[in-house]
Amino acid sequence: MTNPVKPAMRPANPNFSSGPCAKRPGWTLEGLGDAALGRSHRAKIGKAKLKDVIERSRRILGIPDDHLIGIVPASDTGAVEMALWSLLGPRGVDMLAWESFGKGWVTDVQKQLKLADVRVIDAAYGALPDLGEVDFDRDVVFTWNGTTSGVRVPDGDWIAADRQGLTICDATSAAFAMELPWDKLDVVTWSWQKVMGGEAAHGMLVLSPRAVARLESHTPERPLPKIFRLTKGGKLIAGIFEGATINTPSMLAVEDALDGLRWAEGIGGLEALIARTEANLAAITAWVDGSAAVDFLAADPAHRSPTSVCLVITAPWFTGLDAETQAATAKRLAAVLDEEGVAFDIGAYRDAPPGLRIWAGATIETNDLEALFPWLDWALAEIAAERPAA
Fold first, then answer.
1. Which residues of the chain have pLDDT under 70?
2. Whole-number Å distance between alpha carbons of 196 and 336
3. Cα 135 to the chain's mean position, in Å?
4. How far, in Å, CA of 93 to CA of 224, rounded?
5. Looking at residue 370, what is its pLDDT?
6. Rounded CA separation 60/266 (Å)
C-alpha cells in the first residue's frame, strides 16, 4: 500500500485541546495590558476586576439576579468539591455518572465524604444514564456535558421543577456553549480555561436561593478546609460573591478572563457563542457522515456534545485489533497529527475508549476544523498503511 499524499492546507490554529482550550480568535498578549499586576486582589482595583468577571458572566449567561456568583479556588474541581463538601448530607443523594469526571465525584462522595445514602445511576462511555430514574426528593449531582465521553444531557426537561433536593451541576464544558435552565439548577460550576479559553486559576460557583438556604441551615459534621468554607457563624460569607476571593487569584488570569468575556459580548453574547459552537459540530458531523473510518462515541445525536467531540475509529483494519493494540494505535494517530503541527492534544481521554477528542467550542474557527479534516483522513490512511498486510 502506498502512503497517502499530505494535504496542502493547514489549520491556522492547531489548538484543539479540551482543556485548557483554545484562546479566542485574535487573542494577543497585548490584550492583557490593563492587568492589575503587582496589586492586591483586595485593593479597590483588584476587587473591581473580580466583580467585573462576575457581572459580565451574569449578563452573558442570563443568570437570574437572585442567584449568587462567586470566584473560588482550584478551577472547576475546586468549585464542585466546595459544593459537595459544604452542601451534601441532609438528604440522600443520586449521583449520575457516564464519564470520568462524574465518576470522580462519585468516588469523592462515597469514599471521602462517606455519606450513608448514595445511589449511583451510571452508564458506559458513549451513553447517558436513564434520567427517569432520578429521584428529586434527593440531592442530585451530575455533569451537564461529559467532557471525556462527548455525551451531554439534552436539556433540563427531566429535572423536576418541584424538587425537594438540590441539583448540583458541573457545567464546565457546557457554560458559554449551551443553554442552561437556571430555574432547574441550584449549584452550577465551571472554569475559566474551558469554553472561554481563559487561563487556569479559579473556578466559578453559582448558588440559587435554595442552595444558600441549605448552606445557612446545614452545618456539615465533617471538618471543612478553609478554602471550602462558604459560611461563618451560620451565615453566608457574602464577600465571596462580590469579588473577595477566598485565596489569591492571578490578576493576569483575571484580566485574561475579562478579555474573553469582552470578546463574547462583542460578537453577540451567548446566542453567538452557541451558534459558533453548533456550526463547528455541524462541520464535524458532515465529515463523520462522509467517512467510513470514524464515528461519534455518543450514539444518540440528541446527546452529542458540541464542545468536547469524542470520536471512535470504525475502520475494519482498526476494529480487528486487540484492545491493547487499539489503544497504542489511537495514541500513534494523535501523535502523528501533533508531529505535523496540525492538531495538538486530540487523543481520547485516558479512561475513554481509544479514539480522538476534538474541542469545538466557540473559540474554535470552523475553517480550522475544515482544514483539519483532510489531515485526519491522511493520518488514518497513513496509520493503516503502516499496518502489516493480513
1. 1-2, 389-390
2. 27
3. 25
4. 19
5. 98
6. 11
Q: Measured in Å, how far apart are the chain's first and last C-alpha atoms?
A: 12
Dihedral (CA of 315, 319, 320, 326) sign: positive
Chain segment 178-226, per-residue pLDDT in tens: 999 999 999 999 999 999 999 988 999 999 999 999 999 999 989 999 9
Nearest to 14 by CA among 295, 346, 313: 346
Question: Grid coordinates standing for 176?
Answer: 458559554
264 to 29, 68, 106, 110: CA distances (angstroms): 18, 21, 34, 39
Buried-state track 299-326, b at ≥16 Cβ within 10 A, e below 16: eeeebbbbbbbbbbbeeeebeebeeeeb
Strand partners, 145: 152
* Residue 13 grid cell: 490554529
C-alpha 129/C-alpha 12 separation (Å) is: 38
Q: How many other C-beta atoms are found inside a 10 Å radius of the C-beta of residue 292? A: 9
Q: Which amino acid does the sequence have at 213?
A: A
Domains, the chain, ordered by start:
39-264 (3.40.640.10), 269-383 (3.90.1150.10)
The helix or strand, by DSSP H or E, that contains position 294, with its residue range, turns out to be strand 294-296
